[in-house]
Design brief:
Helix content: 25-40%
Oligomer: single chain
Distance between the termini: 15 Å
Shape: globular
Order of helices and strands: EEEHEHEHEHHEEEHEHEHEHH
Strand content: 25-35%
Length: 251
């Protein structure tokens, strides 16, 4: 049985980890490399770093940051934010990232998924999908969930898989920031429809929420930020609770 993965997410602006809701009202929560090292020592299975400024200067700064992360952190890490071309992905993977995450750029140009997967392999490609549910219909969104597209969650996830995505990072914009848990019914449907791992994102407020993502939603991994950044629960304590509930995690 594959272990379920716990993945802290670090939103990065100018080398610092920040936290807000939909990238607004940001608060500084620490140095991106030092915080990542702390999570790695504490038992995180992977990390996700998102460049939320993604200006031209920010991309160069972020590339140097990725090099520092690769030098000092020895668990897999994914980077995303502002990746809109094969060259962008290549620069970050060559700098030491284990995977890249693409979202809006993949929606604008789905062939980007094919290009990155063809050059590096599907295992390097995470397609992030932000979606909002209205009257039972899940619409894929961009710009922090504020702009609806014409794509539907399940058909877009299936296309991303077909084009070469190795994982889907699914965030429900209805749940993001609420700290009331993940949409487990939708997660379960998504994991059943796909043949690649699904990472649950957005809505974690407790260990029970994360446990539900695994037991009810059948997610392969759970991504969270605030509960780790603000010390509400340690990764070791979370894994102990999951283990007690019969959920297979690395300890």
């Amino acid at each position: 049985m594959l272990s379920k993965r716990i993945i802290p997410c670090l939103d990065v602006k100018e080398g610092r980890t920040v936290k807000g809701i939909h990238f607004e009202q940001l608060r500084d929560v620490g140095d991106a490399v030092e915080l990542g090292e702390h999570y790695a020592r504490s038992g995180a299975d992977e990390l996700v770093y998102l460049d939320i400024s993604a200006t031209r200067e920010g991309r160069h700064t972020f590339t140097r940051l990725v090099e520092r992360i690769a030098d000092r952190i020895h668990i897999p890490f994914t980077v995303g934010g502002g990746i809109s071309s094969l060259d962008d992905a290549a620069r970050l993977l060559d700098a030491g990232a284990d995977k890249i995450s693409i979202n809006s750029a993949a929606l604008r140009n789905p062939a980007l998924i094919d290009s990155i997967a063809k050059r590096y392999g599907s295992q390097f490609v995470v397609v992030a999908i932000d979606a909002r549910c209205t009257d039972g219909h899940w619409t894929v969104c961009t710009h922090g969930g504020t702009r609806a597209t014409e794509r539907e969650l399940f058909e877009w996830a299936a296309e991303a898989e077909q084009r070469g995505a190795g994982e889907i990072l699914f965030t429900s914009m209805n749940h993001d920031g609420t700290r009331h848990g993940y949409p487990c019914d939708t997660l379960a449907s998504l994991t059943a429809a796909l043949h690649i791992p699904v990472i649950a994102s957005g809505g974690a407020g407790s260990a029970n929420d994360i446990a539900d993502a695994f037991t009810l939603g059948h997610a392969d991994a759970a991504l969270a930020a605030s509960i780790f950044h603000y010390g509400e629960i340690s990764i070791a304590a979370l894994k102990a609770i999951l283990h007690e509930r019969g959920i297979h995690v690395r300890r």
